[in-house]
Design goal:
By secondary structure, this protein is an alpha+beta fold. It is built from nine helices and 17 strands. The strands form five sheets. Strands 1, 2, 3, 4, 13 and 16 form a six-stranded antiparallel β-sheet that branches. Strands 9-7-12-5-17 form a five-stranded mixed β-sheet, covered by helices on one side. Strands 6-10 form a two-stranded antiparallel ribbon. Strand 14 and strand 15 form a beta hairpin. Helix 3 packs across helix 7. Keywords: DNA-directed RNA polymerase, Nucleus, Transcription. It is found in: Nucleus.
């Protein structure tokens, strides 16, 4: 029997997939045992025999991609929205950027003048670093080890709390942190007694004179964060310097308590569930997804009333033959995204900043690839967005000797000429990403 091309079969529509393949491509089936079709199909020619192009075009992506805000909490710190028309890799990129790459202000250096509490200096400095600071990081410059603390890269707080002898215990709260817009007030120790005393910062002007801070002073996001507790006769006097940083350096710079997403759940009724079986189905669901509806003929049937509330616990398909009546799915390109801000920045601002950072990383990676590879892939009209955002260039310098002269080779094993400026930039970027926590605690005793 001669072989017939699939395009010649009358029951196969060209340009679209049969229902079972469309479900496999766009849904994740959650059975009682394990999920099915969990891996997405990225190959552009996977369905070429049916006349369907599976490649990702920028034009179709821009038309299909949508962001719909669902809920904003009363305090403005929690945001829930839907991202529709993207891949899981891109959704996860937003999540990682929100947690680790969006800059904020946090206390990095603590100068302790006096601490007679039971809390050690190191623990006290660590607790101060985790207090979220309400300040716009775009108004500050990045601070490095060799920089001088000034009004453009540092903001200073003062903390001086004491407990009188014979009095009750005193709580040291975050509201006790007083912003010093003129900079440091502690004087540096010097062996030259005739020299003019110097402080730990050099502010050329007061920060509260800037219009950005005059109406919105810098302060902790919450006033009731407990830093320490003082007993009678105990005292804490210190100065804290906050600088700009990102969460990949230390968690204190992370602007979110958490950022997470889940695929949109989909509950499908394969058969009608009526009367007593409908009541049993409603009782089986712990999150009240199903409701009872009157059929009008003296019978009642179960309906899916709140599919978004489904947690995919799969209680409704466990036991008996319930998998013949109910099927649980997840929509592969529809993500329910939640951002819980620490209060340093509103969640909607954080998401916009994450988009900007992703765009900057995208163009930076393209520039590196074009500088290192002669045969760039970005001059074509059809671009795979995932490759653009998550590629590993074979022509990058090796990480073992970033500042040396490593041999970069392409896929054919031939050497490539690498511009020195891009090597240094890539090395500096990687070295910056690998730095650990450099917060220090200096203790000063003043007589």
């Amino acid at each position: 029997m001669p072989r017939v091309p699939i395009s010649d079969l009358p029951d196969v529509p060209m340009g679209q997939l049969p229902p079972h393949l469309e479900v496999q491509r766009t849904r994740v089936i959650c059975t009682s045992d394990a999920p099915l079709h969990a891996e997405s199909i990225q190959y552009s020619g996977a369905y070429a025999s049916m006349g369907m192009d599976n490649s990702l075009r920028l034009e179709s992506f821009s038309n299909d991609f949508k962001v719909e805000v669902v809920r904003v909490s009363d305090d403005g710190r929690d945001l829930e929205f839907d991202m529709i028309g993207i891949d899981a890799a891109l959704a996860n990129a937003f999540r990682r950027i929100l947690i680790a790459e969006t800059p904020t202000m946090a206390i990095e250096k603590v100068l302790i003048a006096n601490n007679t509490s039971v809390v050690q200096d190191e623990v006290l400095a660590h607790r101060l670093g985790l207090v979220p600071i309400k300040a716009d990081p775009k108004l500050f410059e990045n601070f490095s080890e060799n920089d001088t603390a000034n009004e453009k890269n540092t903001t200073v707080f003062k903390l001086h709390v004491s407990c009188k002898k014979g009095g009750p215990r005193v709580k040291v709260l975050s509201k006790d942190l007083q912003w010093l817009p003129n900079g440091s007030e502690l004087q540096m120790e010097s062996t030259n007694l005739s020299a003019k005393p110097q402080t730990y910062t050099k502010f050329s002007c007061s920060q509260d004179s800037m219009p950005e801070f005059s109406n919105n002073p810098i302060s902790p996001t919450d006033d009731d964060i407990i830093i320490a507790k003082l007993g009678p006769g105990q005292e804490i006097e210190l100065e804290a310097h906050a600088v700009k940083g990102v969460g990949k350096t230390h968690a204190k710079w992370s602007p979110v308590a958490t950022a997470w997403y889940r695929m949109l759940p989909e509950v499908i009724m394969l058969q009608e569930v009526k009367d007593k079986k409908a009541d049993e189905l409603v009782r089986k669901c712990p999150v009240n997804v199903f409701d009872i509806e009157d059929c009008g003929d003296g019978h009642r049937k179960a309906t899916v009333a709140r599919p978004r509330a489904c947690t995919l616990c799969r209680e409704c398909v466990h036991g008996g033959d319930w998998d013949k009546f109910v099927e649980l799915r997840r929509v592969r390109d529809h993500f329910i995204f939640n951002i819980e801000s620490t209060g340093a920045l509103p969640p909607e601002v954080l998401f916009i900043e994450a988009v900007k950072i992703l765009e900057e990383n995208y163009y930076w990676n393209i520039s590196v690839r074009r500088g290192n590879c002669a045969n760039t892939l970005f001059n074509t009209q059809m671009i795979s967005l995932e490759k653009c955002l998550h590629f590993s260039s074979p022509c990058r310098p090796r990480s073992r000797n970033l500042y040396g002269k490593p041999e970069a080779r392409n896929r054919n094993g031939k050497k490539n000429l690498i511009k020195e400026d891009w090597r240094m930039k890539a090395a500096g970027r990687r070295n910056k990403c690998s730095t650990g926590d450099k917060s220090s605690v200096n203790s000063y005793n003043f007589d």
